[in-house]
Structure formats: structure tokens, C-alpha cells
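Practice record 12: protein with zinc ion.
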Amino acid sequence: MMTQVLRDKCLCCGKKSLNEIINLGDHSFADRFIPKNKKNLKDPVYPLIIDLCKRCKFIQSRVITSPKNRYIEVDYSYTSSNSEYSRSHWNKFAKFLSNQIKLKNKKIIEIGSNDGYLISILKKMGAEVVGVDASKFMVKICKKNKLNAVHSVFNFKESFNVKKKFGQADVVIANNVFNHSNDPNNFLKGVKNILKKNGLFIFEQPNFAVGVLSLKFDQIYHEHVSYFTSKNIKSILNQNKFNINYMSKNDYHGGSLRTIAIQKNSNLNKFNVNNLISRDRKKGIYKINFYRKMMKKIDQKKEILLKKIAYYKKQNYTVVGVGAAAKANTFLTYYGLNNMVIKFLTDSSKFKKGKLTPVTRIIIKDDQKIASYKKIACIILSWNISNLIIKKIKKLNKKAKFIFT
Ligand SMILES: [Zn+2]
């Protein structure tokens, strides 16, 4: 166990009014895929505990981990252009943005620009783009593709460097990265600093409400510090002098919220999110008892899954997992599914093939590998795109069996 620093205050309202709602035991970083030559490296593990603020209902992880640690020992492996599914999602996102604001000659800064897939589309649509990313490896990929990018773990202090180099933006984008920040209030101060008065701050995050209501707990991992619902997005934005201009749900990551925020002194219109908020509240997600029941149901699901795996193994099936996303690691670690149970995982990303999962040490191979087995049972780890995955596997191996999480 590594030394631990715990969050004892709400990241939104600052009060010490935190209550534990979820405890998944010890986990390493979910995005830590280990190259073969480092397979004996010991993975740092920390308890994965989620707290709910009694006062303002903000939801956050308890153990503080350093964003720098996540990228020092092993390179970050996730790329936005990884799958056809994600490419299509970001293409639609760009179209959506172009319906909100004319992109020609607009200055757009994307925080968490990853391999630059989204900014490359926006650039083609006429915008002047800049990427900011915490991974040096990703910044390198951007530069190779002739995209303007800078290496930085974004916060208020770093925002001055970004502003000095590029000026203020018409649009700031922060998809699936705002929730990674160890200090979301400070992050928003940074966004404010680089945003023009009537500029748009647009961001997408996994919708915590959808996850817990469908018993999917695998969006919970150390890289995710804040867990967003319509309610706590509104709280934290309002507290930092932002209003909501737009909010909608979509299916990305199994359920996401897309929000456009505007500054309080902006001339643009406000958007009412009270309906979204009250729908979640009525389902009980701000009550501690909800989570007791949820964890019981998740443990029941685990028993059923282990029985299914045992059933296939008894019949000499090889059991594998499909989709080596970060979230798969929360699932594998919590359920104790290691390389003794699962022979290999498959993934289409060239950055993941040949690497091993943290803690469970399962090797990642090409999807094609599934074709060579007579008896194979595939656990669908990327459940959010299960239809696409089943189609793909059936093409590779007609006899493959499927196990659903
Ligand atoms: Zn609070």
C-alpha cells in the first residue's frame, strides 16, 4: 500500500460533510496498461472509495492521487480515434458545436485533447485550434499531425501560460477531463481565465446517475475524481460564476451529460435543468441507503457471473474478455478476475496490444485472435458498445459464446 492522502472536504462547497457511499476495495490506476518488459513492476494500489457531500450533493473519490504519477512509469494508452464508435461520436460532437457557433476563424482550446482527433476535425471546419494535454506522448502525436498542442496538467496557474501563448478562446472544450481534476473549482477558474466574455465552455462527462441506476460501477476509478450529475454540475458551475446554456444526455461511455456553460456576465441565454435534476433525485441517488442496496445487487451479479465462467471452463472453453478500456480494470479488479481466470483481453487499439492490465496482469491481444479457438467464451467488457462487439466477434468466430456483465 502506498502512502495515502485523503480528501476530507467537499471539492465543491468546501465543507467537511462527506459520507461514504461506495467502497470497491484496492485498485490501481485504470488507465495503467503495462508494457511486457515492465510486467514485474508493482502497481500502486489505493482504496477506491466514493463520498457524497451531505450539504451540496457533490460526489467525489476519497483518495488523492497525483495526475503526474499516472504517466511517469507507463505511457497513457487511450486514444480518441481508437474506435469507429468514438470517431463517429466526436464527428457528431463537432457538428453539434458548429450548430451552436460559426466555427470559421474561431479560437478553440481543447483541454485533454488526447491524440487531437476532435481538434483536427474542428480545424478542417475552419477553426483555429489548440490542444492541451497532460500526456507528453499524446502531445507528440498531435504535433506529428501538425496540430498546435501544449503539454500541461491544466489548472488556474497553468491557464496563464495558455493565455499568454494563445490568447482568450471563443470556445473551451474539456471532454472527459474536467472530472479528472483534483480541484474542479480551480480548474473552472482556469477556464474562466482563458474564455472570452461571450465564449462557450463545453464539456462531456459520464453521467453518474445513469451508471448507478443501471448497476454499472466501472466508470468509477482513481483517474475520475468528480462524479457528475445534472445537479452537481449546476452547483459547481454556479459557484464559479458560470451559468448553464445547454445540457443533454447521450449514450457515450454508456451514458454521458453534455453541458455548455457560459459566464455569468455573458449575453447568451440560460437553460433550465430543473427537470433533469428532479428526475434523478426522485430515483434516490442522493440517499445513502440507495448505495447499500446497489452494492448488494452488484455482489449478486458477481456471483452469477462467476458461476457462468465456471460453467464454460468445466466444458473446456477458453474464457477471454473483449474491450480493454479503463473501466474494464475496475470491473476485473473488483470481481477478482485475473490471468488465472481470463486467458487474454482483446482490443482494437494499437497502443494497447501486447500490454498487460494493472493488478490482474491479463495480456491484451488483437480481436483476430478469437478466430483461432474452437471453444471460446467472450466476456463483453465494453458493454456500452455490446451490439457492435457481438457483430464483430460473430464474424470472426461463429461458435463464440457470450458472457454479459
Ligand atoms: Zn459539498
